Amino acid sequence: MPLKLYYHPLASFCWKALIALYENAVPFEPILVDLGEERSRDAFLAVYPIGKFPVINHDGRIVPGSASIIEYLSLHFEDRAGLVPRDAEAALEARIQDRFYDAYVHEQMQKIVLDRLRPPGETDPAGVAAARAQIRTAYDVIENGMASRQWACGDAFTMADCAAAPALFYANKVEGLQARHDTVKAYLERLKARPSFARVLREAEPYFKFFPARDGDT
Ligand SMILES: N[C@@H](CCC(=O)N[C@@H](CS)C(=O)NCC(=O)O)C(=O)O
Fold first, then answer.
1. 181, 106 contact by CB (below 8 A)
2. Are 76 and 57 in contact, with CB atoms under 8 Å apart?
3. Is 204 in the pocket of ligand 1 (CB under 6 A)?
C-alpha cells in the first residue's frame, strides 16, 4: 500500500512534509483534505480525530505532525537528502533549528493568519501584536545565526530547512523582512529556488487566491 499523505496544498505545515517527501523522492498518494467540506472532513477525522494535518498513513501506521513525519520517513525510507543527519550532534542541531522555526516563526505566523479568519469582535489584537514581535525577534536571531551558513544548519540541507521554507515564506507575507534582514532574505530566495520547495509553491499556486491577504502584506 502506498504511503498516504493527508494534506492541503495551501497549508504551511503540509508544505514542510511535502518538501521532505520530494527531497527523498518518496512515492505517496496525496489525499487532499477540505475541512470545509463535510465528507472530506469526516473522512479525515476518522483517520486522525485531532483534525490537524499533515498526517501520513503508512501500512496502517498513522503519523501526525510535520517533524514526526520527517523523522518517520528518514527511518523507513532511504534518506538520500540527509534531512535527519546520521551524526548525532548534527541531528541535534537540525532538531534545534527545526523547533526554532516551528515555534518562533511558523506558529506565530499561524496566529496572525488565523486571526484574520475570526469573526469581527472575536479577534485578538494583543495576541497578534505579540506574534508579530516574536517573528521580528526571530528574524534578528536568524540574521545573526545565518551569516556564514548556506542552509539552516550549515552546508547541508536538513529537516530544519524543510521547517524554515514555509515558515519564512508565509511569515514574510504577513510580517515583512526589513532592510536589516538581508541574510534572511537571501536564505528565503535560496529556499524558493530549491527544486523541492519550488515544486510545492507551483502546486500551491492555484490555491493562493484563498489566502486571507490584507493591505500591507508583502
Ligand atoms: N505541529 C503540527 C501543526 C499542524 C497544523 O497546525 N496544521 C494546520 C495546517 S498548517 C491545520 O491542520 N489546520 C487546520 C485546523 O486547525 O483546523 C505540525 O507540525 O504538523
1. no
2. no
3. no
Confidence tier at 57 by pLDDT (50, 70, 90) = very high
For ligand 1, whether the C-beta of 12 sits within 6 Å is yes
The set of cell numbers assigned to 78 is 532511504
Q: For residues 109 and 170, what is the distance between their CA atoms, to the nearest angstrom?
A: 7
Ligand 1 pocket, residue 70 CB under 6 Å: no
End-to-end CA distance of the chain: 42
Ligand 1 centre and the CA of 54: distance in Å?
7
Task: Establish if 163 belongs to a structural domain.
Answer: yes
How many domains in the chain? 1
Sorting pLDDT into bands at 50, 70 and 90, what band is 8?
very high
- Our answer on whether the CB atom of 53 is closer than 6 Å to any ligand 1 atom is yes
For the Cβ of 9 lying below 6 angstroms from any atom of ligand 1, the answer is no
CATH number (domain holding residue 117): 1.20.1050.10
Measured from the CB, is residue 13 less than 6 Å from ligand 1? yes
- Examine residue 167 and state whether it is found in any structural domain, yes or no: yes
In a domain, 184, yes or no: yes
Residue pair 109/135 in contact by the 8 Å Cβ criterion: yes
For residue 84, which amino acid is it? V
Indicate the top mutation candidate among 52, 118, 211 to test ligand 1's pocket, ranked by most ligand atoms within 8 A of CB: 52
pLDDT digits (tens, 9 = 90+) for 132-191: 999 999 999 999 999 899 999 999 999 999 999 999 999 999 999 999 999 999 999 999
Mean pLDDT of 66-93: 97
Tell me, yes or no, whether 77 lies in a domain: no
What residue numbers bound the domain in which 162 lies? 88-196
